[in-house]
């Protein structure tokens, strides 16, 4: 799949910069690297709620985009379901994944500030 | 609810078990492994610990930032399993001063020949393909092992396995996805994937070797006989290898011996690095 | 981790445009800023605003990514398995924060590869604090407490930055970082209450990281001409000196709990200005490090370059595989 543009980015942004500041506009760079496409990520935080846009990431294809999104956006139990959207397609995580998809953050409570009880009572920490 | 009671409710399969819960069980005497069971837990704990140590090296060095995070998650999962198994194993072991051995006593104050991990886990990361090859073998092995271990008559082993199996199920998927991509990507990546499997495969056989300990424990319904996992391992990994157009490497098996404390040259370096600070300050708390 | 205020606005971009076609856009932009509302990616925005944001966000992202290195350096040697897990999670979080920020920058029309290319070519800046070496385990404490502490001071106001995607990325980052500073504090507390050797290790680390942490807030206000424009655009909410003073006040209190001292005997609370004051900082050193002549500049960039270049074959393989798969799907459909 070819790299996708950023759906949030204005199509005309480059030309606007050109028009206003010709001196400061670098020529578009050629990429010899096979850049991975950009995917937008939507996370449903719990059943009954809608998927909410969480951010974006890079991935070579939908399968890897989902896995990268799982690792990037649900490290703290933030999600029970993920959508990744390239340009015009939507892919959703497998609802039959038997919990394996979201098991890892369970029990890793050192990721939360409340785990660090010794600093209780200290201001601005 | 008392501290001990609170933890007793956690040691049930399906709960989000933390290493601290196991350590508490052991401290309060609620979980007390036999010597055999402790030795078995030590083996599984050492496997996971050495793997976590290896994988941790990738964080800040992976081929793409997204993969830094993916490998980091896997390393953290393995480290969590290691801590649980080692905490449990320590319940049947004592330090020279008579105190029970903690996860850290076991991780930082044992020498090479006292480690019980099989040699596959200590193999160098190599390039990304070699790491994926090792990861592929390891995650299928651990998935099958933990799946069966959830039925152990030892409640603590069963509980650790129940938490771990879901995580390694994901590791298995991660590794398989990459095997397919590297084998089916470019000419170079295919070459590297094949090479990765060739250098890891000699250490596969050791994973499935039975010995007296596993014999006794398997019979008692506590452990899983390693050899009994081989058929499923061959079938499941075979499916992915076939899809990737790869063959099982035709390489001779290494003699292994990690379960008896015989290791490759690599483990010494791993321990030297891992233990250096803790050993500089024996008895210190961190 | 670190939002360092290095951004500057090129002079040619600050000149106003008189094009009538843009009058409406400018009016709308001005209204949104005046209302203290948020600019979103598809809104019209002045080129200088876009450029300033791109520079600041990409520098911030690079700082997270380069900032992984001094701490990753200690993952293998962490002295307990609990600390190893915490450190791994933290360094991994930093990769995540870098990604959130790159993604905010990409919404401004520049892709991540361009930003990475600029970084490894040595053309992009990142927080100069990461060009200092992490020499002992206590540095993991000092980095968490002082460096992340300073970063949080900088970042909390950025959650209200006028550019929506930047503010949203900062909200997520601040939420996740609440554990970063606390774990650093606890590392130092353990060391301070530990053996004499441990306590000395902690004090030594605080001594080395204190001044670089204060300099993370950027040059003094009278030497930071572009801050004004950033504040007018509601990107920046407080001046460098204001944030620095606030930070010093917090550290003064916390260092007592740690049982350690700050290497600065000129810290005092100015009753007139109601602000905390500190001793002089070596801004020559700051500019030297910024210009690439710091202790670890070359090492940090080389490591990033190695990972990126060394990983090219993997990225290419995955892209090639994806392309083959999508062609197969198409053939099947046809």
From TrEMBL, chain A:
Pfam families: PaaB. Signal peptide: none annotated. Residues 1-32 are annotated as: Disordered. It comes from the Bacteria. InterPro entries: PaaB, PaaB_sf. NCBIfam families: PA_CoA_Oxy2 (TIGR02157). This is Ring-1,2-phenylacetyl-CoA epoxidase subunit PaaB. It comes from Pseudarthrobacter polychromogenes.
From TrEMBL, chain B:
SUPFAM superfamilies: Ferritin-like. It comes from the Bacteria. InterPro entries: Aromatic_CoA_ox/epox, Ferritin-like, Ferritin-like_SF, PaaA_PaaC, PaaC. Coiled coil: none annotated. It holds the Pfam family PaaA_PaaC. This is Phenylacetate-CoA oxygenase subunit PaaI.
TrEMBL record, chain C:
It comes from Pseudarthrobacter polychromogenes. This is Phenylacetate-CoA oxygenase subunit PaaA. The gene is paaA. InterPro entries: Aromatic_CoA_ox/epox (IPR052703), Ferritin-like (IPR012347), Ferritin-like_SF (IPR009078), PaaA (IPR011881), PaaA_PaaC (IPR007814). Signal peptide: none annotated. Residues 1-22 are annotated as: Disordered. PANTHER family: 1,2-PHENYLACETYL-COA EPOXIDASE, SUBUNIT A, PHENYLACETIC ACID DEGRADATION PROTEIN PAA.
């Amino acid at each position: 799949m070819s790299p996708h543009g950023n759906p949030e980015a204005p199509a005309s942004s480059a030309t606007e910069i050109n028009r206003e500041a010709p001196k400061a506009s670098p020529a578009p760079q050629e990429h010899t690297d096979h850049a991975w496409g950009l995917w937008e990520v939507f996370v449903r935080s719990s059943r009954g709620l809608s998927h909410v846009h969480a951010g974006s990431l890079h991935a070579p294809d939908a399968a890897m985009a989902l896995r990268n999104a799982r690792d990037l956006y649900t490290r703290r139990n933030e999600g029970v379901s993920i959508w990744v959207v390239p340009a015009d397609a939507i892919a959703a995580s497998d609802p039959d994944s038997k919990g394996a998809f979201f098991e890892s953050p369970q029990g890793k409570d050192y990721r939360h500030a409340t785990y660090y009880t010794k600093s209780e009572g200290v201001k601005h920490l | 609810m008392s501290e001990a009671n609170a933890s007793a409710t956690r040691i049930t399969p399906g709960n989000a078990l933390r290493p601290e819960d196991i350590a508490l069980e052991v401290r309060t005497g609620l979980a007390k492994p036999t010597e055999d069971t402790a030795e078995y837990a030590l083996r599984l704990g050492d496997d996971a610990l050495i793997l976590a140590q290896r994988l941790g090296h990738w964080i800040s060095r992976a081929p793409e930032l997204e993969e830094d995070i993916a490998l980091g998650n896997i390393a953290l999962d393995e480290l969590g399993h290691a801590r649980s198994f080692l905490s449990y194993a320590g319940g049947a072991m004592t330090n020279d001063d008579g105190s029970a051995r903690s996860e850290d006593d076991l991780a930082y104050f044992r020498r090479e020949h006292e480690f019980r991990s099989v040699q596959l886990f200590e193999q160098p990361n190599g390039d990304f393909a070699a790491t994926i090859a090792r990861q592929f073998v390891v995650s299928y092995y651990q998935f099958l092992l933990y799946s069966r271990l959830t039925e152990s008559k030892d409640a603590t082993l069963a509980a650790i396995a129940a938490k771990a199996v879901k995580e390694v199920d994901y590791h298995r998927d991660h590794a398989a996805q990459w095997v397919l991509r590297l084998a089916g990507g470019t000419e170079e990546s295919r070459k590297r994937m094949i090479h990765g499997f060739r250098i890891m495969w000699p250490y596969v056989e050791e994973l499935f070797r039975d010995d007296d300990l596993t014999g006794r424990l398997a019979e008692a319904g506590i452990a899983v006989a390693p050899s009994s996992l081989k058929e499923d391992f061959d079938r499941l990994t075979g499916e992915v290898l076939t899809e990737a157009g790869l063959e099982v490497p035709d390489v001779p098996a290494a003699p292994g011996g990690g379960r008896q404390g015989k290791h490759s040259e690599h483990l010494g370096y791993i321990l030297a690095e891992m233990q250096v600070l803790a050993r500089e300050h024996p008895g210190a708390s961190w | 981790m670190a939002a360092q205020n290095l951004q500057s606005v090129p002079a040619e971009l600050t000149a106003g445009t008189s094009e009538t076609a843009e009058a409406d856009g400018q009016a709308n932009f001005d209204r949104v800023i005046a209302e203290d509302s948020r600019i979103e990616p598809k809104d019209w925005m002045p080129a200088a605003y876009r450029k300033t944001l791109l520079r600041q966000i990409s520098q911030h992202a690079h700082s997270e990514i380069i900032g992984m290195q001094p701490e990753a350096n200690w993952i293998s040697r962490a002295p307990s398995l609990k600390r190893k897990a915490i450190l791994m999670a933290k360094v991994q979080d930093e990769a995540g924060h870098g990604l959130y920020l790159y993604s905010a920058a990409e919404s401004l029309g520049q892709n991540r590869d361009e930003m990475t290319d600029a970084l490894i070519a040595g053309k992009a800046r990142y927080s100069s604090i990461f060009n200092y070496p992490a020499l002992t385990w206590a540095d993991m404490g000092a980095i968490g407490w002082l460096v992340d502490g300073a970063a949080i001071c900088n970042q909390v106001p950025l959650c209200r930055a006028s550019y929506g995607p930047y503010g949203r990325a900062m909200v997520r980052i601040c939420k996740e970082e609440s554990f970063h500073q606390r774990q650093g504090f606890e590392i130092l507390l353990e060391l301070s209450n530990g053996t004499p050797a441990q306590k000395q290790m902690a004090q030594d680390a605080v001594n080395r990281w204190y001044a670089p942490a204060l300099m993370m807030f950027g040059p003094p206000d009278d030497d930071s001409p572009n801050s004004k424009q950033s504040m007018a655009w509601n990107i920046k909410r407080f001046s460098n000196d204001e944030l620095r003073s606030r930070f010093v006040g917090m550290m003064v209190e916390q260092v007592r709990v740690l049982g350690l001292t700050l290497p600065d005997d000129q810290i005092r609370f100015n009753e007139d200005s109601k602000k905390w004051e500190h001793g002089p900082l070596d801004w020559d050193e700051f500019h030297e490090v910024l210009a690439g002549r710091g202790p670890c500049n070359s090492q940090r960039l080389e490591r990033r370059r190695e990972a990126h270049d060394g990983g090219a074959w993997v990225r290419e393989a995955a892209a090639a595989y994806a392309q083959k798969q999508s062609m197969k799907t198409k053939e099947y459909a046809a």
